[in-house]
Amino acid sequence: MPVPIRRLVLALTLCCTLLAGSTACGTGEKTRTKDTAAVQVSPAADTPSPTTSAERQKFAKARFVANAGLAAGATYQWIVKPWKAGKFKKGAHGRKMTLVKAALAGAFTYNRLKAAKRNAQGDPLLSKALAPLGAAIDGLKNLPAKLRSGDGSAAGAFGDVINKVKDAGGSAGAPVKDQVPSASQLNSGG
Q1: How many CA atoms are closer than 13 Å to the CA of 37, on its beta-carbon side?
Q2: Which residues are CB-neighbours of 154 under 8 A, at least 6 positions away?
Q3: pLDDT tens track for 21-42
């Protein structure tokens, strides 16, 4: 019985991941004899930390743009586009898989928008622009369940909130562009 190529690729990927993970977790003599002072200094030197309030605001804006862009991309790719194509309707071909993807994307979108809201608090202009959208973002919490039940209006609600967040970011000098997240980002939630 022939095996679909997707299953083979998935099995190969999982095997490689497990192999790489098991070799990385080995305990050898080389890892024990390293100088601990050198190991502890390196990570601290590599991580940049903002020192001025202007740098903190710049990082907050960049994080906001990244998180809001991922939320917008997931919403468009796995919620709005299938909704417009009619894939949420009863009897549509591939409806169950579309609903599962949409529910995952909905939870991901909610998670990334909450992170974007937290990031916006680091920038005074962004925090003012997003303040009226706090309730709308919190209202997305129950929409993935509505998507699973087949409620088509939930897809429109996601699209509306995303457009409002994009407009708020643009008015605060942080334009948001759609970034479609990878499957691993979608599964991990960010």
Answers
A1: 0
A2: 106, 143, 144, 146, 147
A3: 555 555 444 444 444 444 444 4
156-186 residues labelled b (16+ CB within 10 A) or e (exposed): ebbbebbebbbebbeebebebebbebeeebb
Q: What is the pLDDT of residues 44-93, one digit of tens each?
A: 445 455 556 666 667 888 999 999 999 999 999 998 899 889 888 888 89
Print burial letters for 94-130: b (CB count within 10 Å at least 16), e (below 16). ebeebbebbbbbbbbbbbbbbbbbebbebbeebbebb
Cα gap 67→115, rounded to integer Å: 7
Radius of gyration of the chain (CA): 21
pTM of the model: 0.67
Distance CA 71, CA 158 (A): 10
**20: Cα within 13 Å, side-chain hemisphere:** 6
Length of the chain, please? 190
